[in-house]
Amino acid sequence: MDKQNEFLKMLGARIKSLRAEKGYTQEQLAEAMQTSYSYVAAIERGTKNVTVETLYKIAHALDTTVQELFTYEETMYQQSSKDTAMRILELLAQQNKSDSDKAYRILLELFR
């Protein structure tokens, strides 16, 4: 998947999440935006490129800011970081103390 498609899918997922948090259906969001629900569905699937004007309409309809529509990156990054940390911990838990200590020293050197 190319970067643009990935971006549109992430944006669509974020819009869908915000809409669900508000308890709105696609039809209700579309009505508030004065557009069709099929257009909202396409945006949420990440198959439609959106304009700044459309982003503003979405944000206004969801009683949020355009900036809030883009907070998914940080959220997804944080979750990815947590997942990576858990995999590292699971791997270390399987090692003996000597190897765990060695891995710790390597990480210390790597991040200095």
Description:
The protein has 112 residues and is mainly α. The chain is built from seven helices and no strands. It folds into two domains: 3-65, lambda repressor-like DNA-binding domains (434 Repressor (Amino-terminal Domain)), CATH 1.10.260.40; 73-110. Helix content is 78%, strand content 0%. GO terms for molecular function: DNA binding. Keywords: DNA-binding. Residues 15-69 form the HTH cro/C1-type domain. This is Helix-turn-helix domain-containing protein.
Low confidence ranges: none
Helix proportion: over 70%
Number of domains: 2
Q: What is the CATH level 1 assignment of the largest domain?
A: Mainly Alpha
What's the total helix number?
A: 7
Estimate what percentage of residues fall within beta strands: under 5%
| SSE ordering | HHHHHHH
Structural class of the secondary structure composition?
mainly alpha
Q: What would you report as the Rg, rounded to the nearest angstrom?
A: 20 Å
Count of extended strands: 0
CATH architecture of the largest domain: Orthogonal Bundle
Gap between N and C termini: 34 Å
CATH superfamily of the largest domain: lambda repressor-like DNA-binding domains
Tell me, rounded to a whole number, the average pLDDT: 89
Per CATH, what is the topology of the largest domain?
434 Repressor (Amino-terminal Domain)
What about the largest sheet?
Answer: none
Q: What does the oligomeric state look like here?
A: single chain
Shape: elongated
